[in-house]
Specification:
alpha+beta, Serpin_sf_1, 9 helices, 361 residues, four-stranded mixed β-sheet
């Protein structure tokens, strides 16, 4: 439950892709929902080819969502082995790194990458879809800051194909940084320094000397997010409260934030959970979805339901609820917490069916 909330904050950070087509909301209580945002200034007579391109881009964006939800469900399945453990992930970060690999892969490995990422278009369409997402993950306002850092740390003694380097840097805006894998101490220090700088000091130690054992390439993706609630919680209303598991058993006390306000809220039957949207900032770009399993429904069950329901399905029901219950007040209780996670992507990706052991070596 508590562990699920933070994980979903990272999972759904790309929810801004579903803004209304005019980029504005008619009321403060409507969800961030609508068709994907693409420029629409092309004259109608030239729209045929453009519409086909946009349709393919939308399918690629849908592929990114499908991968994210499947990945998150698989991560939840893995954590069943560790009861009451916390997990937190940005599947888009994983998707974007694997997308970089498709640019240099061939044969069966390329096919498995594309199948896993749920992309079936030519590379130009996929690149355009990636840039669309990445553009929304670059925000710097008075109320929200979002910044990403993708890098491939290559072995200086094993130069990368120049054409691939150009694509990585110019098309994907990622850094390709040659380092000396034989000089382990200086290299892992440099990589950690780069990641720490990108995350404003929040991740000072990401890689260890052990990570360089038999490695030829390190792919790093970090996503920094700092946002102010549109409707801030008053610290004076934060107090100790009992925290329960999905079966109603007390797990102890937490510092519980509370407020009463007009928020978008819906019970979603197929998800077997209640969903609350907490918007960030004033630009109608980002929000956090808090998903609370119904009593007796496990977090893992909801994670797998989420894969089937999809984000669009959730936002549609939030939109309907906003129209049906506009102006109604919702009492919100949200625990304060911090968490960190460590897990093997190899295990998760292998269990996502499409990768063979050979392709992951």
């Amino acid at each position: 439950m508590g562990l699920f909330l933070k994980a979903l904050a990272c999972l759904l950070i790309t929810s801004e892709l579903w803004l209304p087509s005019n980029g504005q909301l008619s009321t403060g209580s409507r969800p961030l929902f609508g068709p994907p945002v693409f420029p629409s200034s092309t004259p109608a007579k030239t729209n045929k080819n453009r519409n086909a391109l946009l349709e393919n881009q939308i399918r690629s964006l849908k592929g990114a969502e499908t991968f994210a939800l499947k990945f998150f469900a698989q991560l939840s399945n893995e954590h069943l082995k560790v009861p009451n453990s916390n997990y937190m992930i940005s599947p888009f970060a994983v998707w974007s790194l694997l997308l970089l690999l498709t640019e240099g892969a061939v044969g069966n490995t390329l096919k498995e990458l594309r199948d896993t990422l749920h992309i079936d278009h030519d590379q130009q369409v996929i690149r355009a879809a990636y840039r669309q997402i990445a553009s929304y993950l670059t925000v710097n306002t008075t109320t929200i800051e979002v910044a990403s850092f993708n890098a491939l740390f290559t072995d200086v003694n094993k130069p990368v194909n120049r054409d691939y380097e150009i694509v990585v840097e110019r098309v994907y805006g990622s850094a390709l940084i040659p380092v000396d894998y034989q000089d382990v101490n200086n290299t892992f220090t440099k990589i950690n320094d780069d990641i720490s700088k990108a995350t404003r000091g929040l991740l000072p130690y990401t890689v260890t000397p052990q990570d360089f054992k038999e490695a030829n390439l390190l792919l790093i993706s970090s996503l920094y997010f700092k946002g102010q609630w549109r409707y801030p919680f008053n610290s004076a209303d934060t107090r100790p409260a009992t925290f329960y598991d999905e079966f109603g058993n007390s797990l102890g006390f937490v510092q519980m934030m509370t407020q009463n306000g007009t928020f978008v809220y819906a019970g979603i039957q197929d998800l077997e959970a209640h969903v609350l949207e907490l918007p960030y900032g004033t630009q109608n770009r980002l929000s956090m979805l808090v998903i609370l399993p119904k009593k007796g429904v496990t977090v893992n069950k909801v994670a797998n339901n989420l894969r089937d329901v999809g984000l669009v399905g959730i936002f549609r029901q939030l939109l309907s609820a906003a129209e049906d219950f506009e102006g109604e007040s919702v009492e919100v209780f949200l625990p304060k917490f911090t968490t960190q996670s460590h897990f093997s992507l190899r295990t998760i990706l292998t269990n996502m069916v499409y990768f063979t052991q050979l392709a992951l070596l």
